[in-house]
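stage 2 :: seqdesign
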């Protein structure tokens, strides 16, 4: 397979993964997979949460495609697609786990309008701690925060966690 075609497949896969991630987040994680994803909408104690299993689950297709194309003689395009899935996973990890949730310490502060928008949209997603009433299911493409705030208000702030006060903070300790 030619390099230009391979790179095109890779890039199309990375872009397409945003649509897949939206659908998986909206209809799997908020559907039958809520038993794992619910841990992500509660305060984490320790380094891991059940939701982290999704990283392993979603890595399987990438691994299988790379193995098949590179070792088992499958169509070479599967390697580029598998690499695109892995690249999206790395981008997701960097954005979601490092920048937004700060699971690895960093001094990064979003400065561009794009980064501020996706970080704020994801934080608005996390103010809802229940399965119902949530907004903003994308990761790298996000609606305007003003629209998300209006939608939360329209829904009567259904499932929105109570603000943390000094009393509730002390009660958790």
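stage 2 :: out
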């Amino acid at each position: 397979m030619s390099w230009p075609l391979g790179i095109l497949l890779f890039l199309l896969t990375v872009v397409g993964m945003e649509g897949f991630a939206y659908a998986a987040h909206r209809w799997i994680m908020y559907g039958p997979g809520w038993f794992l994803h619910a841990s992500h909408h509660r305060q984490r104690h320790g380094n891991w949460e059940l939701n982290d299993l999704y990283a392993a689950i979603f890595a399987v297709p990438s691994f299988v495609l790379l193995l098949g194309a590179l070792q088992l003689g499958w169509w070479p395009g599967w390697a580029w697609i598998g690499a695109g899935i892995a690249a999206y996973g790395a981008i997701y990890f960097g954005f979601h786990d490092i920048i937004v949730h700060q699971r690895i310490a960093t001094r990064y502060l979003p400065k561009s309008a794009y980064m501020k928008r996706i970080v704020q949209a994801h934080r608005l997603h996390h103010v809802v701690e229940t399965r119902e009433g949530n907004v903003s299911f994308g990761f790298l493409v996000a609606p305007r925060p003003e629209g998300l705030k209006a939608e939360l208000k329209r829904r009567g702030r259904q499932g929105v966690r109570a603000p943390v006060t000094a009393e509730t903070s002390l009660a958790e300790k």
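stage 3 :: structure notes
- The chain has seven helices and no strands.
- Confidence is low (pLDDT under 50) at residues 168-173.
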